[in-house]
Structure formats: C-alpha cells, structure tokens
Amino acid sequence: MSKLSISSYDAMLDRVYSSVNVKPERHTRYEIPKLISYNEGGKTIITNFKQACEKLNRKPEELAKFLYKELGTGGNIDNERLILTGRFENEQINTVLNLYYKRYVICPVCGTPDTTLIKQKKIVYMKCLACGAESPVPEV
Question: Residue 43: which H helix or E strand, with range?
C-alpha cells in the first residue's frame, strides 16, 4: 500500500469539491408554533394551546398570563384549549405569541430556543441550556 502525499490528497480533495455544485441550505431547526383560534359568541378559543406550550417548553399558566396581559383580557385554560374573554383575530394572537417568543424563549446570547425560566427570590431568569447564559427577564 502506498502512502499518499499531502499535495496529492489536497489535489483529490479540490477535484471532489469542484465537482459538487450543491450549496448548503440554511434551515432553522425551530419554528414558532402558530396558535389556531376561532370565535364563538363573545369568546375566542385557542384550540392548540397546550401543544404550543409544550413546543415552547413553557408552562401553560405562564403563556396564558402573558396573553391576558398583552390582549387586555381574561380567560381560563380548559384541558387542551385556552378560552379568552372577547373576540380576537388569529393574526393578533400570533403577533402576541411572537412577542412572548422573543422576550421569554430565545436566548439573548446565542439565539437558541433551548431555554427555561427560573425564579430565584423575586427575579425571573432565562437560563439557556445550550450556552449556559442566565439573563434576567421581566416577570409576566
């Protein structure tokens, strides 16, 4: 068996790279869930609320509290659904969800969604499981 010289290895590598014309596609591994809602009487019902909370890795009570505050309404969690008092458009609800995602899910240091919320004394921190950063966030 003959040994390959570094220059012949580099030449073969260059030849392989030049024959491949595939550009890597950029994929984000995480997509913000879209809340699905409908209006029934004077209420708005979000049908996939619990699934969205699971995907965001957040407690349903935390996200519900944020939605109540930002939409200026009240409501309750009913099994898999969230019922809001008042009529809201799906687009409006998802805009508020995107705001929550930016404030309470995405790590401000490395940009990953692999975070958890931790309350120490009276301060709430977002702890990143990817880079280990801890950042204070406003309490919901």
Answer: strand 43-46
- DSSP H helices, 1-140, are 6-19, 49-56, 60-71, 90-104
CA–CA gap between residue 122 and residue 84 (Å, rounded): 28
3-state secondary structure of 67: helix
Confidence (pLDDT) at 64: 96
- Separate counts of helices (H) and strands (E) for the chain: 4, 7
Specify the pLDDT at position 49: 96
| Residues 85 and 43 reside in one and the same domain | yes
Residue 21 lies in a domain: no
Residue with tokens 């939605």: 67
Residue type, 38: Y
SS3 content of the chain, % helix, strand, coil (to 5): 35, 25, 40
List per-block mean pLDDT (blocks of 10 residues) for the chain, which spans 140 residues.
67 77 53 92 96 94 96 95 96 96 92 90 90 88
Q: Are residues 72 and 124 in the same domain?
A: no
